[in-house]
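User: Please run a holo structure prediction.
Assistant: Happy to. Please share the sequence and the ligand.
User: Here you go; the ligand is pyridoxal-5'-phosphate.
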Amino acid sequence: MPHNRPTLGQEEENMAINVLQSGWLAQGTAVERFENDMCDFLGLPQGSAVAVSSGTAALYLALVALEAKGTNIAFPAYSCSALRNATALAGGNPLLIDSRMDSPNMNIETIDHATNIAIIPHMYGLPQDFSKHPCKIRVIEDCAQALGASVNKTPVGLQGDAGVFSFYATKLITSGGQGGMVVSKDAAMIEALKDYRLFDRRSDAKIRFNFQMTDLQAAIGSAQLRQFSKFLKRRAEIFQQYQEANFPLLDASAGVQPVRFRAILRTTKQEDIIAALARHNVSAGVPLQDWELLGPKELYPAAYYWTQNTVSLPIYPSLTDEEVNLIINIVGNVL
Ligand SMILES: *Cc1c(COP(=O)(O)O)cnc(C)c1O
């Protein structure tokens, strides 16, 4: 049993075949349609989304659009290396932030006035509310793990200056393996992103790069989004079964609405649980290892703590009740 498995079927096949038969593969109607499908899903006016080739590209372009070069950019030590890479490529100065002890999300209370831009991920589908933050900072919400979550009824992606999404194979939905999107309520920001994306046949000498999504990817993304509420429902059912087995799962703080992207145990028995599951060919793992932290572990004790005290269990729509019960029995025995 893999730790993760994308949910792909007839809808994805049909949409992909339509694109192939149309003969139009790049920056065509399927890309625009996926962008507008995302706008509809998030309750944004159409035209407020820009599809790109990956979540990393989305982060980088959002930083470029916020004129990040030479500015101070805060992001968590406990997160995907994409944040460090995008910051460096955009010419920003990284300011690493530790996690909280009650949540693997970054401790936004330690962000101060030295920060110009903060990249705030919602780890494992658990959204972070930063609406009451006292500092005047620009915010990029990293929603790669939290599509469909919300804070006080506002969908994640709309709280800050820009929201970025990833449609990599293991995320909540995929656009056929790779893909990303930036959304924003700010029309000037969308304009800047689209200007960057359109790199060919330009009369100015501005440096741009090709970060475009293909129509084949976009068509698969739209097919996934159409089934997304069904996917989320099944994920929530599995999460609830783990909860009913009294598993010590990480959960969202009050007032925010999570999505069940990951089922993360908070446990000191990391090795034992992973080994017991492996004996039954169930793949579970440490969601983020200490050597993956974006700064030295001595400086980020909470981040280090989360690398040592978490196990990620399988949770995805195609997991059967039988498979869930097997996991519950094995993990229950160790706990
Ligand atoms: C996956 C992920 C990214 C990067 O997205 P890609 O599409 O893989 O480039 C960025 N941030 C977070 C929190 C992620 O989980």
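The first strand starts at residue 49 and ends at 52.
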